[in-house]
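Bench notes, bay 3.
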Amino acid sequence: MTTTVEKVVLPPIPAKRYFTIGEVSELCGVKPHVLRYWEQEFTQLRPVKRRGNRRYYQHHEVLLIRRIRELLYEQGFTINGARNRLDSHGAVIDELDEASAAIEAPVVAASPASAPAAAGVVNVEQLRNDLLGVIDLLRR
């Protein structure tokens, strides 16, 4: 008996610098306690901790969490397998693939007050954040 896992469609990531654990939970389809556990298991996840030990995730970390979720939930990797995949080369290559896919999409400059971009159109600020996340990953 084979089971097929459907890929879950996650909401677009807003163009902002920091996200709370609750926001990341909704954006990635993962409960907050799972995110806290993944921080212990994946050394690449290091959210900024501020007043009261509150976690704030950056855009590249949200992308990384989505990648971890995909490896674990959709591709069936174990924690160790996903960690090895990300440690070897997976995170950087996957981030570059996502960034290149975003670059190939039509780019439309949007004012902050404008309505959300239509499907298939990339927000320039989000593209900038994606590329900054890739640069940050490459520097590690």
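Next record in the batch:
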Amino acid sequence: MNAGWPCPGPGGPTEELAVTFDRQRRHRLLIVPPLFDEMNRTRRFLIETMRRLDIVGVDSVLPDLPGCNESVQAFEAQSLYSWRKAMAQAAAHFRASHVLAVRGGALVFPNALPGWVLEPVKGASLLRQMLRARTLAGREAGLAESSAELLEIGREEGLDLAGYRLGAALVAGLESAMPLDEGQREIRQSDLGGGALWLRAEPGEDPGQANALAAIIAEGIAA
């Protein structure tokens, strides 16, 4: 089900939405999703993982990052700092006992919580992928754009990448952002089997991978 939660924003607090499997149990997992298109490609997979955790007695919550999905905030106003602040607020509101950060979510998750990071990625890697996609698309359209030139513009004015309007603060933050690490266990794609869902062209799911991820989390919580 969907639940609202109070989220800080540039213009003041707003109510954001989260998918929840919440029976007020002791173990409560906050899932911080990947960033940009990877978020859309993995959403079904993460919700299927939540269903499996619900069966074994673990509550879970998947909040929207401000500016994404049904959020009322503007994407262009976001930064890594605003997302970190929002995820910390979500953790407090839903009383999370553990956290799972996926891919770019490892740049903004509440790393004071015990838990897991699934294939964490550097901010520069995400930025480089989106810049490359834009320059390739521009080349096909007859435009001569370079990643270096686009990045310089992005630092000053913001930039349109992968269907998102990134503000200058987000561009600058991604350039140097490293996954946060306070001892959370790293999960590799090989631990789940199959191909990485965030690399697919369209959103997808994989029951085997959802089973494997839920089992890793449930076993870790029980240990």
